[in-house]
Design goal:
About 40% of the residues lie in helices and about 15% in strands. It is of the alpha+beta class. The longest helix is centred in the middle third of the chain and has 16 residues.
Length: about 525
C-alpha cells in the first residue's frame, strides 16, 4: 500500500482534527459551520477572507476537512464533529476516498460530467514519458476529453478557472504529483482506482455489443446522452442520408447483459416507430417478453420473466437491495418461488443473493424545508422520487399544476410524462440511492417560474416497516402558490391529521393522484 502520512493534505487533516478536539459544530451537510471557518484557517496557518459564507470559501480548509472526515480522523455525532481517539492510521483506501471527495467538491466540470474523468485524463497525460505542461497540458486535456465525448461545444476555453489548474493544486496537496508535476506512487494508485471505477468512453467507432457492455453500469438517466455520443442517428459517410443505428443496437441487446438490454428497451420505448422495432424481435428469447409487453400481447410467464430481468439489471447496477425492490414492484407472492418459476436463464444468479426471510423495509425520517416552513415525514426507503414528489405536494399543499425537479449533486430528475432536458426519470430512482446515509441532502424545486426551493434532509433511518408515509411534525402555514396581490388569500395552516389522511388515501388508492 502506498504511504499517505507525509502528503500535505493529510498533515493538514491531522492539524484540523486536533483543532476539532472534543467538539465543533457542523452544518446539516456535515461541513464546518461558516462562523468557525476563520478559526480553522488560523489553526492551519492559511489565509481567510474577511467574510466567510461557506466552507468552500477557503479551499485549503475544505480539503483538509474532507480528508479528515474521509480518513476517519474526525467523526460526526449529531450536529457536532469530534476528533477520533485514537487517531486511525490512514491507508491507501482512505487516501483515495479523500481524493474523490475533494475532487467532487472543488472541481466544476465545464460540461457537467463526472470531474473524476478529467482527473484521470490529467494523471494519464502527466504519466507520459514527456508530459505536456502549462498551456500544453490544458490543450492536451481538452483534446482527450473531446475525443472521449465528455467535453463538447459547451466547453469554453477558461483562462482563470480552467479545471486542470484546480486539479493540479489538489493533486499536489494530496501527494499524487510532486512539485515538478511528476506522478508519484500515490498518483499511480489513483490512476488504477479511477480506471477501474469510471465507465469507459462511448465513441462512434464502437460496435453495438461493446456499447451495450459499457452502458450497462451507467445510471439509466445517462443512457440517452451516451447513445447520442455513439451517434445512434448519424449521416451516412459521403451522403446526406441519416442512418438509424437503433435496430442494430436492439439486435445486439438479444445477447447483452440484463442492464445493457434494458437500457435499449427503455430507449426503444421512446421512439415513434417503436411498434415496428418490437415486431421484429417479439419472438427472440431474451427480448420477446419485453416486446410483447409493449405490443400488449403478453403470454403466460412474460411478467415474471420481465421482473427477473429488471431485478438482475438492478442487481448489477446497484446491488441486492435494489434487486429485491425491483421484484417487489413487479411480482407478488413469494419472491423465491416467483423467480424460480420465471424460466429466466439467469434466475439462479438472483436466487443466490435474495434473502430467504424477507427483511423489513427501513423507513426514512426526512425533514423537508421550504421558505421558512418545514415538515417531518416518515417514508419507506424504497419509494421513488416520483412517490416523494406526491408526498411533498400533500405536505405543503402544492396543486401539482407546475413542473418540478429533484437535484442530487449534478444529477437531475423530473416527471417522465412532462420531461425536462437532461433530467432522468424520477420514477426510476429510489430514495435509498440518492439519500444513502443520515445527513444526506436532496434538493427539490417546485414551480420552475416561482422556484419554491426545498431542502430534503435524511435525519435518521428507522427499522419499523411503514404501512404508509406518515407526517410526524411540522411548522408554518402552507406557502401560498401563485400569489396574486389583487386577490389575496389566507394561507392554509399546518394540519398534521389532514395531511396524514391525504397520505393514507394515496396509499390505499395505489396511485399517485387521489384527487
Amino acid at each position: 500500500m502506498p504511504s499517505v502520512a507525509e502528503s500535505p493534505v493529510f498533515t493538514a487533516a491531522h492539524a484540523l482534527a486536533s483543532w476539532v478536539g472534543t467538539g465543533r459544530a457542523v452544518t446539516p451537510s456535515i461541513a464546518i459551520k461558516p462562523a468557525l471557518v476563520p478559526d480553522a484557517a488560523l489553526a492551519l496557518g492559511v489565509a481567510c477572507p474577511a467574510k466567510v459564507r461557506r466552507l468552500s470559501d477557503v479551499p485549503e480548509v475544505q480539503r483538509a476537512w474532507l480528508t479528515a472526515v474521509a480518513a476517519g480522523l474526525v467523526t460526526i455525532e449529531g450536529s457536532r464533529a469530534v476528533r477520533a481517539e485514537p487517531a486511525p492510521a490512514p491507508g491507501a483506501d482512505a487516501w483515495y476516498a479523500a481524493l474523490e471527495q475533494v475532487v467532487a467538491a472543488q472541481i466544476t466540470d465545464p460540461c457537467e460530467v463526472d470531474p473524476r474523468i478529467c482527473c484521470l485524463v490529467t494523471l494519464d497525460l502527466l504519466a507520459e514519458e514527456a508530459p505536456p505542461l502549462g498551456q500544453a497540458l490544458r490543450e492536451a486535456v481538452e483534446h482527450e476529453m473531446r475525443q472521449r465525448g465528455d467535453w463538447d461545444w459547451r466547453f469554453i476555453r477558461l483562462a482563470d478557472r480552467h479545471p486542470v489548474d484546480h486539479l493540479l493544486t489538489i493533486l499536489v496537496a494530496l501527494g499524487a504529483v510532486d512539485d515538478r508535476l511528476m506522478v508519484t506512487e500515490l498518483g499511480e494508485h489513483a490512476r488504477k482506482e479511477l480506471a477501474e471505477r469510471l465507465p469507459l468512453p462511448i465513441t462512434a467507432d464502437l460496435s453495438a455489443a461493446e456499447v451495450l457492455h459499457r452502458i450497462a453500469t451507467a445510471p439509466p438517466e445517462e443512457v440517452p446522452e451516451l447513445l447520442w455520443r455513439w451517434r445512434i442517428e448519424d449521416l451516412e459517410p459521403g451522403s446526406r442520408r441519416v442512418v438509424d443505428r437503433l435496430p442494430e443496437l436492439l439486435r445486439a441487446a438479444a445477447e447483452a447483459s440484463p442492464a445493457g438490454r434494458l437500457s435499449v428497451v427503455e430507449v426503444v420505448a421512446e421512439r415513434g416507430d417503436a411498434e415496428v422495432l418490437w415486431q421484429a424481435v417479439r419472438d427472440l428469447p431474451l427480448l420477446g417478453p419485453h416486446a410483447r409487453w409493449w405490443l400488449d400481447a403478453e403470454i403466460e410467464g412474460d411478467r415474471a420473466w420481465r421482473a427477473v430481468d429488471y431485478a438482475l439489471a438492478a442487481l448489477d447496477r446497484y446491488g441486492v437491495i435494489d434487486a429485491r425492490y425491483a421484484l417487489l414492484d413487479m411480482m407478488g407472492g413469494d419472491l423465491h418461488e416467483g423467480v424460480g418459476g420465471s424460466r429466466h436463464p439467469e434466475a439462479g444468479r438472483l436466487l443466490a443473493v435474495l434473502p430467504r426471510t424477507a427483511p423489513a423495509i427501513p423507513g426514512y425520517q426526512l425533514k423537508i424545508s421550504a421558505a421558512g416552513v418545514w415538515r417531518r415525514v416518515l417514508v419507506p426507503e424504497n419509494y421513488s422520487l416520483g412517490d416523494l414528489h406526491q408526498i411533498i405536494r400533500r405536505l405543503f399543499g402544492w396543486s401539482d399544476h407546475h413542473l418540478h425537479v429533484f437535484r442530487v449533486g449534478k444529477r437531475h430528475f423530473s416527471d417522465p410524462f412532462r420531461p425536462l432536458e437532461e433530467c432522468g426519470d424520477e420514477d426510476l430512482c429510489r430514495l435509498n440511492r440518492v439519500l444513502p446515509a443520515p445527513r444526506s441532502v436532496l434538493r427539490y424545486t417546485y414551480d420552475l417560474g416561482d422556484c419554491w426551493e426545498h431542502e430534503i434532509l435524511l435525519e435518521r433511518v428507522v427499522t419499523e416497516e411503514l404501512a404508509a408515509p406518515v407526517c410526524v411534525d411540522g411548522r408554518g402555514d402552507n406557502p401560498i402558490e401563485d400569489y396574486n396581490p389583487e386577490y389575496p388569500e389566507d394561507p392554509v395552516p399546518f394540519d398534521r391529521d389532514a395531511i396524514n389522511r391525504a397520505l393514507a388515501r394515496r396509499t390505499l388508492a395505489g396511485e399517485g393522484d387521489d384527487e
